[in-house]
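Sample entry (348 residues):
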Amino acid sequence: MLARFKAAAVHAAPVFLDRQATTKKAISLIREAAAAGAAIVAFPETFIPAFPVWAALWAPIDNHDLFVRMADQSVLVDGPEVKAIRDEARSLGILVSIGISEKSTASVGGLWNSNLLIGEDGEILNHHRKLVPTFYEKLIWSAGDGAGLRVVDTRVGRVGQLICGENTNPLARYALMAQGEQFHISSWPPVWPTRRPAEGGNYHIAAATRIRASAHCFEAKVFGLVTAGVLDKAARDMLVARDPAAAAVLDATPRAASFFIDPTGEQIGESLCEDEGILYADIDLNRCVEPKQFHDVVGYYNRFDIFDLNVNRRRLSPATFVNEPELSAVLAEAETGARDDKGFFAGA
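Predicted structure, serialized as tokens:
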């Protein structure tokens, strides 16, 4: 029999661009979810310290101070904010998925849109960096790598995670399916303006999220947890105080929603959109089995002789350093290996 458990999807606002206060809020929400009996709790995209919605509102030449503040309030994976959340997960025995804006140790302005999966023992089970920042997000975050394209075997089953627009990438989604994913977490921003609302045709993030989450759950035959942020009054008012014209965009742009999806693509229970809160769902992974009879795209319902996916999961680094003793050993080995059986160098 497969796992049965209660899952919690957080639909909440960070304390805008305040990593310490947001960490405290996250810990409070983790405690609330654990007290309600949740075995796993998931937070929205870059919950710490915030989603940089200003990149959609104003030209980058007007946003330098906000980028500097975002960089200052972003967090290191081995920093105190993540440690506090890991300690809380260990104390409560709960799995935690949380979105962060991650600092680079190699650059004071280098940032990634990242997601961490923390085990009930406080260990980081997966560290995923968003493969490609979407649209104006490129003004804030660097591209990630494939190191976090992993499904983790946990006590609640095999858990995979993708961030926002990555759920539109069929190859990224298939990479998780091919690792036996059973429970898929997708994290989203509170709003995502693409046009001025008066012009029409603005992106409806809640509708788009539902399409993508339902499609993945239906194709993979997995349960889905969708967690989205909230743009609260404090953040909205701060942005409008900077430029009153921002009110027309922020107030009329559709809000994101949080909800659960079953392996047939149907929504489980209610959703949250405007108000903050935590949604809960009882998950029974045994329900993932029957739908596999219809389409098992990583089993019989595929042609592996035709299609072949290779995934590079190497963690990218800005440089590789070889110290002098190590370099001497490498050169000596290369010289030995390059000689032929008569002692001459190859090609001499």
